Amino acid sequence: MAHEPRVSDELGRRLKAYEGRTAAVSAAGKDPVNAPMIRHWCEAMGDTNPAYTGPDAIAPPTMLQAWTMGGLSGHTARSSAYDELLTLLDESGCTSVVATDCEQEYARPLRPGDEITFDAVIESVSDRKTTKLGTGYFVTTRMDLHVGPDLVGTHRFRILKYAPAHRREGPPREEPEREKPPRPRPVVNRDNAGFWEGVRERRLLIQRCTGCSTLRHPWLPGCATCGHPGWDTVEASGTGQVHSYVVMHHPPFPAFDPPYAVALIELTEGVRMISNVIGVPYEEVRIGMPVRLEFKAYDEELVLPVFRAEEERVAVGGGSRAAR
């Protein structure tokens, strides 16, 4: 016998009314599936799978959402329901948002020339949840993508809209300085558990296909080059360079101190990974900057790989100079 989800508060009841409402109808991708975007994606991801090049190329399946993005101008087919839902949450004090996860299902490969249309629906709104970030609601949207009448894939995207834990009602008042919240923990699953075990041992392990010897990161259950499921690992030398980076200014999260640089590091072994660059101010991070691996303990439980700039800035008589 099916049971209705238990809703614990009046706001929750109002939010639940949005389940099943349309977020977009017959919206069209701004560009057909095309080779330049596929090439940019593969270069950014370091994906050399030959299936994504040549006259019979297909698009990487994980690009599914890329073909639906509306850019700064958005999509004219977007409905008001999703905006209404977010406004209701904002007005209730749930003014912060963090993306939590996404799920994708693939019905058939996409090829250059395919023109995407999609429909989106607000699939679910959770009961009120209390997390380390604060109290709020998980909102899941489902997007179905079509080429002509054919379903080609489904994309589910989930966010948490929450009231920050440190926020209090009423007039501001002086409070004692609070201890900084713990840094969020990485998601460990059966596919990447070996990587995090290596990190705990202060070793950066790279997956290697036992079929064709291709190195890969992030860790995957099978080889994207030859499809072989077998793998072993090699330990990274720890050297590399900044391939690309962004500086995060907003939104601020309680466990972080913006602005800070988030970099895509290209290791000497050829694979790339996202991490932080330490040893220089964020404004001095540059593409091509040589870096070296370190392991940083953020608390008694969490250790993460970070990369120290080979050229650090040190103060000299009120100025600074490069030090190797």
How would you sum up this structure, described in words?
The protein is mainly beta. The protein has two domains: 10-164, Hotdog Thioesterase (Thiol Ester Dehydrase, Chain A), CATH 3.10.129; 193-323, no CATH class. The protein is built from four helices and 16 strands. It has helices spanning 10-16, 35-45, 81-91, 193-200, and strands at 22-28, 96-106, 116-125, 129-130, 134-147, 150-164, 205-209, 215-216, 231-235, 239-248, 260-267, 272-278, 290-297, 303-309, 312-316, 319-323. The strands form four sheets. Strands 1, 2, 3, 4, 5 and 6 form a six-stranded antiparallel β-sheet that branches. It has a five-stranded mixed β-barrel with strand order 10-11-12-14-13. Strands 8-7-9 form a three-stranded antiparallel β-sheet, with helices on one face. The protein is globular and about 55 Å long. Mean pLDDT is 87; it is low at 1-7, 167-172 and 313-321.
Keywords:
324 residues, Thiol Ester Dehydrase, Chain A, 2 domains, six-stranded antiparallel β-sheet, five-stranded mixed β-barrel, 16 strands
Write the layout of secondary structure elements.
Blueprint: H1 10-16, E1 22-28, H2 35-45, H3 81-91, E2 96-106, E3 116-125, E4 129-130, E5 134-147, E6 150-164, H4 193-200, E7 205-209, E8 215-216, E9 231-235, E10 239-248, E11 260-267, E12 272-278, E13 290-297, E14 303-309, E15 312-316, E16 319-323
Parallel strand pairs: 12-14
Antiparallel strand pairs: 1-3, 2-6, 3-5, 4-5, 5-6, 7-8, 7-9, 10-11, 10-13, 11-12, 13-14, 15-16
